[in-house]
Amino acid sequence: MNVPKHSTERRGSLMTRSTLCGVIKSLDKHCILDSNDVVIVTLCDITLWDGAHLDCPHIPQRFIVSKTELDNCDYFPIPFTIYYDDDEI
Question: Contact, 56 vs 44, CB < 8 A?
């Protein structure tokens, strides 16, 4: 006997892995971070016209990036990797 599938059922889908790179920039010639600082990156959607932030509930909101080498105090990258469902974004 076949059981009908409901539209509310979640289906399996492929996950997408993306490595992004944010940048912290200093304009006053001093390092804003120390080499042992931990950087917290928060992902959110800021494209709404009213300026409200809409967090993506299916993406872990915080990624801790440590051991960042500060070779240049004016400009250095903060790399992080996210995994997300391509159908949901």
Answer: yes
Annotated domain spans of the chain: 35-89
Kindly report the backbone phi and psi dihedral angles of residue 81, in degrees, each rounded to the nearest multiple of 5, phi listed first: -120, 135
Cβ atoms of 63 and 84 within 8 Å: the answer is: no
Considering only CA atoms, which of 78, 85, 81 is closest in space to residue 32?
78
How far apart, in whole angstroms, are the C-alpha atoms of residue 82 and residue 65? 12
Name 61's Cβ contacts closer than 8 Å, sequence gap at least 6: 42, 43, 44, 55
Question: Model confidence over 17-73: pLDDT tens digits?
Answer: 665 555 555 566 666 666 666 666 555 544 544 444 444 454 444 444 444 445 555
